[in-house]
Write a structure and sequence with these properties.
- The chain has two domains: 93 residues, MurE/MurF, N-terminal domain (Udp-n-acetylmuramoylalanyl-d-glutamate--2,6- Diaminopimelate Ligase, Chain: A, domain 1), CATH 3.40.1390.10; 215 residues, 3 Solenoid (UDP N-Acetylglucosamine Acyltransferase, domain 1).
- It is flat.
- Strand 21 and strand 22 form a beta hairpin.
- Strands 8-10-13-16-19-24-27-30-33-36-38-39 form a twelve-stranded mixed sheet. A ten-stranded parallel sheet has the order 9-11-14-17-20-25-28-31-34-37, with no helix packed on it.
- With 341 residues, the chain is α/β, with parallel strands linked by helices.
- Helix content is 16%, strand content 29%.
């Protein structure tokens, strides 16, 4: 689909500088721009590219001062980065504007679905599933029985939503996720073997939640594993049974959270961090990448290291750690001098 600079400026509340009828049909980075594409310039270190980009339209800040004439048509806005993000959302909405049921699919007669929904090829939807308005389910997905998916939610291809899961409105679940699988629960037996503990609960996901590709969220042993409103999860995250994650918490890739741990609101958790089970993590906590959390944490703490401790203390300790070879060398020298005496 093609758009003119004038149309885009209307969407972004911007001002056109150049030909308002310039047309574009694709997005690009400014350094990789080509004829027919639109890009943006928000970071000053990329300013030189404005003079040599092949993009037809570039979104720029109102305060950008040019050293010379440029080839592309400019759209000046208050914040180029936010404007381009808005444009991406608009583009995705158009791209996702699909409705209807493709063939072949397997949808049980009891499924509650309306004409605004989209279901891609080779998807299976089992008994008593309820889909809200404008739900989009891509190809090769599996939706187990008694699942509820709220309005405006998008399920990308190859995802498995298992029985009883409740998903809120306007969520995005990326490819390869498994939600509602059985938790890792085994009871040790006198003979040294392990007996599986039945997992009878569900997963409950709030509104406006993003879940990255190939992430897994286990259902509860009893009750629910809970992902609250506004949570953003990166790719390849493991969330165990009965975990609860507070509103607007952001978690980077490859984090693992063991069973029954409760994480507070508005936390920021770096990649490859790990959490032991049955912990309580406060609100506003920041956890650096590769940190191992093994104890309860109070509100607004900043942590690093394994086992985790205060970030400032870790930084001070790391200075000494880097100097250990020099310190050992000095100790060896002192010992030699003492033995020499």
């Amino acid at each position: 689909m093609k758009f003119t600079a004038k149309q885009i400026a209307g969407i972004l509340d911007g001002t056109v500088e150049g030909n308002p009828e310039t047309e574009v049909h694709q997005l690009s980075k400014i350094e990789e721009g080509e004829l027919g594409s639109i890009s943006f310039l928000a970071n000053k270190k990329y300013n030189p590219f404005i003079y040599k980009t092949g993009a037809s339209i570039v979104i720029v800040n109102n305060d950008l001062v040019l050293d010379k004439e440029v080839a592309p048509t400019l759209i000046r806005v208050k914040d180029a980065y936010q404007a381009f993000s808005t444009l991406l959302e608009f583009y995705n909405q158009i791209d996702d504007n699909q409705e209807g049921i493709m063939e072949p699919v397997s949808i049980d007669k009891s499924v509650r679905i309306n004409s605004s929904c989209y279901v891609g090829e080779f998807t299976v939807i089992k008994q008593n599933v309820s889909l809200g308005d404008h739900v989009k389910i891509d190809s090769q997905c599996y939706i187990g029985k008694d699942v509820t998916i709220g309005s405006g939610t998008k399920i990308h291809s190859g995802t498995r939503i298992l029985s009883g899961t409740i998903i809120g409105e306007n969520c995005i679940i990326h490819s390869g996720c498994v939600i509602g699988s059985e938790g890792f629960g085994f009871a040790p037996q006198p003979d040294g073997t392990y007996k599986k503990v039945p997992q009878t609960g569900i997963v409950r996901i709030g509104n406006n939640v993003d879940i990255g590709a190939n992430s897994t969220i286990d259902k509860a042993t009893l009750g629910a594993t809970i992902i609250n409103n506004g949570v953003k999860l990166d790719n390849q995250i493991q969330i165990a049974h009965n975990v609860e994650i507070g509103e607007n918490t952001v978690i980077a890739a490859q984090v693992g959270i063991a069973g029954s741990t409760k994480i507070g609101k508005s936390c920021v958790i770096g990649g490859q961090a790990g959490f032991a089970g049955h912990l309580t993590i406060g609100n506003g906590v920041q956890v650096q990448g590769k940190t191992g959390v093994t104890r309860n944490i109070k509100d607004n703490a900043i942590l690093q290291g394994t086992p985790a401790f205060d970030f400032k203390s870790y930084s001070k300790s790391y200075i000494h750690f880097k100097n250990l070879p020099k310190i050992i060398k000095r100790l060896d020298q002192i010992e030699k001098e003492q033995h020499g005496k």
